[in-house]
Amino acid sequence: MDDINYLSLGGFTINYEDRAGLNSSLRILKDAEKYENVSLWGRILGVQKDYFVAQCWNDDIFGRKYFYSTDTITWLQLPEVTDDELKDISEIYSRFIGDPSYEYQVQSSVPNNEKEPINEEKRLSAVIKMINYDVEIVPRGAYYQDRLKRIHFNYKFKGLSEKEMIDLSSYFHFRSGFKLSLDTIEDRIDIDQSIDIFDNIEKDKPNGIWSLQVENGGSTVTLRSLLWPGYFFFHTPRSDMRQCKFGSMYNGFGIKNINLGVML
């Protein structure tokens, strides 16, 4: 919650009561579950109640576990979802209700073969996974890969330059499994295998899928996803007056924009 002033640029606001509840309960969650890192992933807006989502991890940033709360006090761990469940859930486009036990009927491609309904708790888990894969981003250089192929946060990262800040190729999809290829190397003039460890977002399709804006007199850059409306990223480089900061949050309905190609 330390970055609330930056996140407010993306429309994320929270009342004093909920903010106080989150600050207290996230610390309790961190101690109770014995995680080194706990942060607020975002908020998914429901018809009856909203879901606040926390992410927790130790050494492996890609081994994050997710917890949700509808009252900012009590946190429950989200279940894992199978690939088949993920596929079924990707076809649900209605609003979240705000009731974890609410069940969605899923259609089967096989006649006379009804599938088990999927509850909203699993849908929430799947949507977080899809959002992370599709649009979670970090600036180039914020993470590096060691000789053992392990990924670490770069504590020496000072931020992007003014020129780099407004270049989409300076922002990477924050997801595992990236491998350098001949095409990748040809796309990047100044390749550095220690930090060029993710796909950059410059070639995301369709064109115009990201909205980049310069804020705060040029000191901060923000990016918004049009694919998952509600995803917001900010970055402000280090200067004599401030520390380098970057971060992101999702604050929306948890519904993918399937009409984006038509809109653009």
Give a verbal description of the structure.
The chain has 264 residues and is an alpha+beta fold. The chain has two domains: 4-135, no CATH class; 138-263, no CATH class. 22% of the residues lie in helices and 24% in strands. It is built from seven helices and 14 strands. The chain has helices at 4-7, 16-33, 83-89, 120-135, 162-165, 182-187, 260-263; strands spanning 37-44, 51-57, 65-69, 76-77, 103-104, 118-119, 137-139, 143-145, 151-153, 171-173, 210-215, 220-225, 231-236, 245-252. A hairpin with a 5-residue loop joins strand 8 (143-145) and strand 9 (151-153). It is globular. It starts with a helix and ends with a helix. This is Radial spoke head protein 9 homolog. It is found in: Cell projection, Kinocilium; Cytoplasm, Cytoskeleton, Flagellum axoneme. Its main location: other. Belongs to the flagellar radial spoke RSP9 family.
What does this entry show, briefly?
This is Radial spoke head protein 9 homolog. With 264 residues, this protein is α+β, with helices and mostly antiparallel strands.
Q: Give, in order, the helices and strands.
A: HHEEEEHEEHEEEHEHEEEEH
**Based on DSSP secondary structure assignment, what is the total number of beta strands?**
14
DSSP helical segment count? 7
**Into how many domains do the coordinates divide?**
2
DSSP helix fraction: 10-25%
Mean pLDDT: 90
Computed CA radius of gyration, to the nearest angstrom: 19 Å
In terms of per-residue confidence, which ranges show pLDDT below 50 for 5 or more consecutive residues? none
Largest sheet: 8 strands, mixed
Share of residues in strands:
15-25%
SS class: alpha+beta
The separation of the N and C termini measures 34 Å
Q: Reading side by side through the largest sheet, how are the strands ordered?
A: 4-3-2-1-14-13-12-11
Silhouette: globular
